[in-house]
Protein backbone atom coordinates (compact mmCIF):
# COMPACT_ATOMS: atom_id res chain seq x y z
CA UNK A 1 0.00 0.00 0.00
CA UNK A 2 1.19 3.53 -0.73
CA UNK A 3 -0.36 6.73 0.58
CA UNK A 4 0.64 10.37 0.92
CA UNK A 5 -0.40 11.21 4.49
CA UNK A 6 -0.36 15.00 3.97
CA UNK A 7 1.25 15.29 7.43
CA UNK A 8 -1.92 13.99 9.06
CA UNK A 9 -4.23 16.78 7.87
CA UNK A 10 -7.17 16.93 5.48
CA UNK A 11 -6.84 18.86 2.22
CA UNK A 12 -6.08 22.55 2.80
CA UNK A 13 -4.96 21.62 6.35
CA UNK A 14 -8.42 22.24 7.79
CA UNK A 15 -8.49 19.33 10.27
CA UNK A 16 -6.00 16.97 11.89
CA UNK A 17 -7.22 13.44 11.13
CA UNK A 18 -4.22 11.16 11.72
CA UNK A 19 -6.12 8.87 14.17
CA UNK A 20 -8.79 8.29 11.52
CA UNK A 21 -6.11 7.69 8.90
CA UNK A 22 -4.46 5.09 11.13
CA UNK A 23 -7.70 3.14 11.50
CA UNK A 24 -8.27 3.19 7.74
CA UNK A 25 -4.73 2.03 7.00
CA UNK A 26 -5.07 -0.75 9.56
CA UNK A 27 -8.29 -1.89 7.88
CA UNK A 28 -6.42 -2.48 4.62
CA UNK A 29 -3.94 -4.70 6.49
CA UNK A 30 -1.13 -4.48 3.94
CA UNK A 31 2.12 -6.29 4.75
CA UNK A 32 4.18 -3.28 3.66
CA UNK A 33 3.04 0.36 3.68
CA UNK A 34 4.82 3.21 1.87
CA UNK A 35 4.18 6.65 3.40
CA UNK A 36 5.01 10.06 1.99
CA UNK A 37 4.79 13.44 3.76
CA UNK A 38 4.73 11.72 7.14
CA UNK A 39 5.47 13.98 10.09
CA UNK A 40 8.39 13.22 12.36
CA UNK A 41 7.89 16.07 14.81
CA UNK A 42 6.20 19.48 14.83
CA UNK A 43 6.33 21.42 18.09
CA UNK A 44 3.69 24.00 17.18
CA UNK A 45 1.11 21.52 15.90
CA UNK A 46 1.67 19.32 18.95
CA UNK A 47 0.62 22.23 21.18
CA UNK A 48 -2.40 23.22 19.07
CA UNK A 49 -4.04 19.79 18.54
CA UNK A 50 -5.19 17.78 21.53
CA UNK A 51 -5.16 14.50 19.57
CA UNK A 52 -1.58 14.98 18.36
CA UNK A 53 0.32 11.77 19.22
CA UNK A 54 3.39 11.83 21.45
CA UNK A 55 5.23 9.45 19.11
CA UNK A 56 6.37 10.38 15.58
CA UNK A 57 3.55 9.85 13.10
CA UNK A 58 5.14 6.83 11.45
CA UNK A 59 5.38 5.09 14.85
CA UNK A 60 1.80 6.07 15.66
CA UNK A 61 0.62 4.63 12.34
CA UNK A 62 2.67 1.45 12.80
CA UNK A 63 1.22 0.94 16.30
CA UNK A 64 1.13 -2.79 17.10
CA UNK A 65 0.34 -3.91 13.53
CA UNK A 66 3.67 -3.22 11.84
CA UNK A 67 6.50 -4.15 14.22
CA UNK A 68 9.14 -2.84 11.83
CA UNK A 69 9.42 0.69 10.44
CA UNK A 70 12.00 3.00 8.90
CA UNK A 71 11.90 6.76 8.46
CA UNK A 72 13.77 9.00 6.05
CA UNK A 73 13.82 12.63 7.12
CA UNK A 74 13.65 14.90 4.06
CA UNK A 75 12.45 18.38 5.08
CA UNK A 76 13.73 20.01 8.27
CA UNK A 77 12.41 23.33 9.61
CA UNK A 78 12.50 25.20 12.94
CA UNK A 79 9.40 23.48 14.35
CA UNK A 80 10.03 19.94 13.12
CA UNK A 81 10.59 17.67 10.12
CA UNK A 82 8.82 15.28 7.75
CA UNK A 83 9.74 12.71 5.12
CA UNK A 84 9.05 9.18 3.87
CA UNK A 85 8.49 6.02 5.90
CA UNK A 86 8.08 2.30 5.36
CA UNK A 87 5.99 0.15 7.72
CA UNK A 88 6.59 -3.60 7.50
CA UNK A 89 5.29 -6.81 9.02
CA UNK A 90 8.62 -8.36 8.00
CA UNK A 91 12.06 -7.58 9.47
CA UNK A 92 13.78 -4.55 7.96
CA UNK A 93 17.43 -5.63 7.89
CA UNK A 94 18.80 -2.35 6.53
CA UNK A 95 17.59 1.05 5.36
CA UNK A 96 19.14 4.07 3.68
CA UNK A 97 17.56 7.44 3.00
CA UNK A 98 18.86 9.09 -0.16
CA UNK A 99 18.56 12.87 -0.41
CA UNK A 100 17.55 13.60 -4.00
CA UNK A 101 16.68 17.26 -3.46
CA UNK A 102 17.56 19.58 -6.32
CA UNK A 103 18.55 23.21 -5.72
CA UNK A 104 15.61 25.12 -4.28
CA UNK A 105 13.14 24.87 -1.40
CA UNK A 106 11.74 21.40 -2.22
CA UNK A 107 13.29 18.59 -0.17
CA UNK A 108 12.81 15.10 -1.57
CA UNK A 109 14.07 11.65 -0.71
CA UNK A 110 14.17 7.97 -1.66
CA UNK A 111 13.99 5.59 1.31
CA UNK A 112 15.51 2.21 0.44
CA UNK A 113 14.80 -0.75 2.74
CA UNK A 114 15.84 -4.40 2.53
CA UNK A 115 13.30 -6.84 4.00
CA UNK A 116 13.76 -10.43 5.11
CA UNK A 117 10.74 -12.61 4.35
CA UNK A 118 10.12 -16.06 5.86
CA UNK A 119 11.33 -18.89 3.65
CA UNK A 120 13.33 -16.68 1.29
CA UNK A 121 17.11 -16.86 0.96
CA UNK A 122 17.61 -13.38 -0.50
CA UNK A 123 16.20 -10.06 0.59
CA UNK A 124 13.25 -8.18 -0.89
CA UNK A 125 14.01 -4.53 -1.62
CA UNK A 126 11.53 -1.66 -1.38
CA UNK A 127 12.00 2.03 -2.15
CA UNK A 128 9.57 4.70 -0.96
CA UNK A 129 9.69 7.67 -3.34
CA UNK A 130 8.51 11.26 -3.27
CA UNK A 131 9.65 13.26 -6.29
CA UNK A 132 9.58 16.99 -7.01
CA UNK A 133 6.93 19.18 -8.56
CA UNK A 134 9.19 20.56 -11.29
CA UNK A 135 9.63 18.49 -14.45
CA UNK A 136 13.38 19.14 -14.63
CA UNK A 137 13.79 18.06 -10.99
CA UNK A 138 11.82 14.86 -11.54
CA UNK A 139 13.96 13.88 -14.52
CA UNK A 140 17.11 14.20 -12.45
CA UNK A 141 15.52 12.35 -9.55
CA UNK A 142 14.40 9.50 -11.80
CA UNK A 143 17.97 9.14 -13.06
CA UNK A 144 19.18 9.08 -9.45
CA UNK A 145 16.62 6.39 -8.67
CA UNK A 146 17.94 4.28 -11.55
CA UNK A 147 21.49 4.68 -10.26
CA UNK A 148 20.42 3.61 -6.75
CA UNK A 149 18.71 0.52 -8.12
CA UNK A 150 21.74 -0.45 -10.19
CA UNK A 151 24.18 0.19 -7.34
CA UNK A 152 22.28 -1.18 -4.34
CA UNK A 153 19.78 -3.81 -5.53
CA UNK A 154 20.98 -7.20 -6.84
CA UNK A 155 19.81 -7.79 -10.39
CA UNK A 156 17.82 -10.90 -9.41
CA UNK A 157 16.26 -9.49 -6.21
CA UNK A 158 12.54 -8.66 -6.01
CA UNK A 159 12.06 -4.89 -5.95
CA UNK A 160 9.03 -2.69 -5.29
CA UNK A 161 9.22 1.08 -5.78
CA UNK A 162 6.14 3.02 -4.70
CA UNK A 163 5.09 6.50 -3.72
CA UNK A 164 4.18 9.96 -4.96
CA UNK A 165 6.00 10.58 -8.24
CA UNK A 166 4.20 13.84 -9.16
CA UNK A 167 4.61 12.56 -12.71
CA UNK A 168 1.41 13.91 -14.22
CA UNK A 169 2.83 13.69 -17.75
CA UNK A 170 3.62 9.97 -17.43
CA UNK A 171 7.27 10.27 -18.35
CA UNK A 172 8.62 8.11 -15.53
CA UNK A 173 7.49 4.84 -17.11
CA UNK A 174 9.98 4.87 -19.96
CA UNK A 175 12.86 6.17 -17.84
CA UNK A 176 12.41 3.51 -15.17
CA UNK A 177 11.80 0.71 -17.68
CA UNK A 178 14.98 1.48 -19.59
CA UNK A 179 17.15 2.51 -16.64
CA UNK A 180 16.06 0.03 -13.97
CA UNK A 181 13.83 -2.57 -15.69
CA UNK A 182 10.87 -1.47 -13.57
CA UNK A 183 7.26 -1.78 -14.74
CA UNK A 184 4.26 0.05 -13.34
CA UNK A 185 1.56 -2.30 -12.08
CA UNK A 186 -1.53 -0.33 -13.12
CA UNK A 187 -0.05 0.36 -16.54
CA UNK A 188 0.55 -3.37 -16.99
CA UNK A 189 -2.90 -4.36 -15.72
CA UNK A 190 -5.10 -1.62 -17.17
CA UNK A 191 -3.07 0.09 -19.88
CA UNK A 192 -2.77 3.33 -17.91
CA UNK A 193 -1.50 4.56 -14.58
CA UNK A 194 -4.15 5.04 -11.90
CA UNK A 195 -5.61 8.51 -11.37
CA UNK A 196 -5.09 9.49 -7.75
CA UNK A 197 -5.12 13.29 -7.40
CA UNK A 198 -7.04 15.11 -6.11
CA UNK A 199 -8.56 12.29 -4.09
CA UNK A 200 -12.13 13.66 -4.25
CA UNK A 201 -12.17 13.84 -8.06
CA UNK A 202 -8.99 12.14 -9.33
CA UNK A 203 -7.71 13.62 -12.57
CA UNK A 204 -3.94 13.14 -12.40
CA UNK A 205 -1.86 9.97 -12.15
CA UNK A 206 0.67 11.04 -9.53
CA UNK A 207 1.06 7.91 -7.38
CA UNK A 208 2.65 4.71 -8.65
CA UNK A 209 3.74 1.18 -7.81
CA UNK A 210 6.63 -0.20 -9.86
CA UNK A 211 8.01 -3.74 -9.61
CA UNK A 212 10.91 -5.84 -10.84
CA UNK A 213 11.32 -9.61 -10.50
CA UNK A 214 7.81 -9.85 -9.07
CA UNK A 215 4.28 -10.60 -10.20
CA UNK A 216 1.26 -8.46 -9.41
CA UNK A 217 -2.40 -9.26 -8.82
CA UNK A 218 -5.39 -6.96 -8.48
CA UNK A 219 -3.92 -3.46 -8.26
CA UNK A 220 -6.63 -1.21 -6.85
CA UNK A 221 -7.23 2.49 -6.19
CA UNK A 222 -8.93 2.67 -2.81
CA UNK A 223 -12.47 4.17 -2.89
CA UNK A 224 -13.30 7.81 -2.26
CA UNK A 225 -15.02 7.01 1.03
CA UNK A 226 -13.40 7.34 3.46
CA UNK A 227 -10.10 8.05 1.71
CA UNK A 228 -10.94 11.36 0.06
CA UNK A 229 -11.47 12.73 3.55
CA UNK A 230 -8.16 11.32 4.83
CA UNK A 231 -5.67 12.43 2.18
CA UNK A 232 -5.44 14.61 -0.90
CA UNK A 233 -4.05 11.56 -2.74
CA UNK A 234 -6.03 8.35 -3.30
CA UNK A 235 -4.02 5.40 -1.88
CA UNK A 236 -2.97 2.48 -4.07
CA UNK A 237 -2.77 -1.19 -3.13
CA UNK A 238 -1.55 -4.27 -4.97
CA UNK A 239 -0.85 -7.90 -4.18
CA UNK A 240 2.77 -8.69 -4.99
CA UNK A 241 3.75 -12.26 -5.86
CA UNK A 242 7.39 -13.24 -5.30
Automatic annotation (TrEMBL):
InterPro entries: Endo/exonu/phosph_ase_sf (IPR036691), Endo/exonuclease/phosphatase (IPR005135), GPI-anchor_lipid_remodeler (IPR051916). GO terms for molecular function: endonuclease activity; exonuclease activity. Residues 21-233 form the Endonuclease/exonuclease/phosphatase domain. Keywords: Endonuclease, Exonuclease, Hydrolase, Nuclease. PANTHER family: CALCOFLUOR WHITE HYPERSENSITIVE PROTEIN PRECURSOR, PGAP2-INTERACTING PROTEIN. This is Endonuclease/exonuclease/phosphatase family protein. The keyword Hydrolase applies. One of its GO terms (cellular component) is membrane. GO terms for biological process: GPI anchor biosynthetic process.
Amino acid sequence: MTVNTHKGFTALNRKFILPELREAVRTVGADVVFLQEVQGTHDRHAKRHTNWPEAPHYEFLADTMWPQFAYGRNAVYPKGHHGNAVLSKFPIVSHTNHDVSIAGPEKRGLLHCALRLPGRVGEVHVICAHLGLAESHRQQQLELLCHIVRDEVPADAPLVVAGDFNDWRGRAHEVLAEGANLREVFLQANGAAAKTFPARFPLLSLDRIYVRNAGVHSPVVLPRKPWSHLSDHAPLVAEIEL
